[in-house]
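#struct-help
A.M.: can someone run this one for me? Single chain, 211 residues.
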Amino acid sequence: MNNYVLTFTFALLLGSCIGKHNSDAQKATVSAKSTEIKALATGDTSKIDLSKSTIHWKGTKMRGTGKHEGKIELKSGYFVTTNEQLVHGNFVVAMTTIEVTDIPEHEPVPRNNLNTHLKSSDFFDVEKFPISELQMMSIKQITLDSLWITGNLTLKDITKRVEFGAKYQSKSFETKFTIDRFQWNIAYEGNFADKTLVDKDIELTIQLKTE
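D.P.: on it. Structure tokens below:
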């Protein structure tokens, strides 16, 4: 099996840690769901090793003056390679595992409150929508170590076409980008002040490794 490391940043938005948050993440292009029929990719198929894979999210509020970050677990996934080049990929995220990590465990009340809030209908509504999925529809090699990924990203049963750049070198795949959470109806249904306190961009960054 070939080994790959996929870095994919999944960032939500919520925060109260003081200090301006600066990010060098690219902004993914988001458009209507791709309806093209994905040709069956041929090559070596490798399952993603769930025990060695991590997904990290980071979210901000008040134009980046506050932030929170955390993790979420992968449910399943695989990559297809031809001549050691990535040609296709698909992975499913278990939304019920989302949790904050920057609130210490010795502060269980605020930590549990935020975890519950993220899982509620205010944001990801994980009871109703327990999984999210990214299906890579096409992968174009730009240079020896850079790729352009086009895929369908499904969150809360809403599927949008996303395009973003990535780096691939020495059997590792890395990317970091942001998406507008409103495109997937991830919106806190509070008053105007509540909605605007939480920034709209979700920064996405993940590390996945195949078996």
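A.M.: thanks! The chain has a mean pLDDT of 80.
D.P.: also worth noting: Residues 5-209 form a domain with the Lipocalin fold (CATH 2.40.128.110).
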